[in-house]
Amino acid sequence: MRAEKSRFWHIGVIGGSGLAAGIDLEDAQEIPVSSPFGEPSGPVTTGHIGDVRFTFIARHGAGHGIPPSAVNYRANIDVLKRCGVTDVVALSAVGSLRENMAPGQFVAVDQFIDRTTARTNSFFGAGLVAHVSLADPVCARLCELLAAAARLAGGKVHQGGCYVSIEGPQFSTRAESRVYQSWGADVIGMTAMPEARLAREAELPYALLGMVTDYDCWREEEGGVEVSHVLEVMHANARIARDALRALAAGLPPVREPSPIDTALEHAFITAPDARDPELVAKLDAVACRIFGERD
Q1: Nearest to 106 by CA among 130, 125, 89, 129
Q2: Is 2 within a domain?
Q3: For the chain, give me the number of helices (H) and strands (E)?
Q4: Crossing angle, helix 227-251 and helix 140-152, to 10 degrees?
Q5: Nearest one of 93, 91, 60 to 213, comparing CA atoms
Q6: For the stretch 211-242, what's the b/e string if a residue is b when 16 or more beta carbons lie within 10 angstroms of its beta carbon?
Q7: Active site residues
Q8: Is 105 within a domain?
Q9: Confidence band (pLDDT; 50, 70, 90) for 224?
Q10: Residue 295 in this model has a pLDDT that exceeds 90
Q11: DSSP three-state, residue 195
Q12: What CATH number did the domain enclosing 221 receive?
């Protein structure tokens, strides 16, 4: 078994459309990292902000060439784990389902409703069954630190919100938008699931800062969502998102205390050791290295 996580912070950042060009890192290096789960969205860029190491991956690849349903979420999380990240920050454009969550504002998401249908949503499966708890899908500590950093960067931030993740690539119908409101969802997007699920399986604390770009389509007096308007708001918010990461680096405690999520797999496996698929176990040399150890 590998030693416990480093007591030094190493933040993995998954950037959505608004941060496809990356984040401002000192001593930045772009590195291709391979995964047994297939091709990730692209190479990672690793470097520092102040004294904190950050490793960035663009969710949709260079030039936004990968649609939400085709993102290899497993490979992206796997390569971040291989890079040694301790925690994951996701930055995503979202539509608002609430009047008070206006375009240009931010939401520190704390719950999810998963409406995706065509994505592989687990690292585990036949030959190695595991069930992790997802009752509280984000890391409260990281979420609070991220929200505070976004406020320091000049953003208006709503602390807490439920994100409904749809398959896409089309935006929702008005009827769907109203149904999601009735379920208690606050914002809508296409990428948080299975990303958050997989981060938990990889024992990586996860927090998502949603950048509100539009009011979805539930307002009768307005037209539907237009990509041109989404991009306009998103680009305006990108500076705040980058500044928030700088503020996050400055605001992190000097020592990273352990998180309960660091041991999320501790009692998750139900398959008997002698019935486990050795090929799948070998593929998990990064994701579940704390349980199975690292390969030479």
Answers
A1: 89
A2: no
A3: 7, 11
A4: 100
A5: 93
A6: bbbbbbbbeeeeeebeeeebeebbeebbebbb
A7: 214, 216
A8: yes
A9: low
A10: no
A11: helix
A12: 3.40.50.1580
What are the tens digits of pLDDT across the range 129-152?
999 999 999 999 999 999 999 999
pLDDT band, residue 16 (cuts 50/70/90): confident
Dihedral (CA of 105, 111, 113, 114) sign? positive
The helix-helix angle for 73-82 and 192-201 (nearest 10°) equals 40
Asked if residue 14 belongs to a domain, the reply is yes
Q: H or E segment at 149? A: helix 140-152
**pTM of this structure:** 0.94
Residue 5 is assigned to a structural domain of this protein: no
Q: Report the SS3 class of residue 178.
A: helix
Question: What is d(CA 251, CA 142) in angstroms, rounded to the nearest whole number?
Answer: 11
Go through 165-188 and write b for each residue having 16 or more CB atoms within 10 A of its CB, e for each that does not. Answer: bbebeebbeeebbeebbeeebbbb
pLDDT score of 294: 59
Which tokens in the block code for residue 115?
A: 């409406």
Q: Structural domain of residue 45, as residue ranges?
A: 10-292
Sign of the dihedral through C-alpha 169, 175, 178, 180: negative
d(CA 169, CA 40): 19
- The number of distinct structural domains making up the chain is 1
Per residue in 94-128, pLDDT (tens digit) is 999 999 999 999 999 999 999 999 999 999 999 99
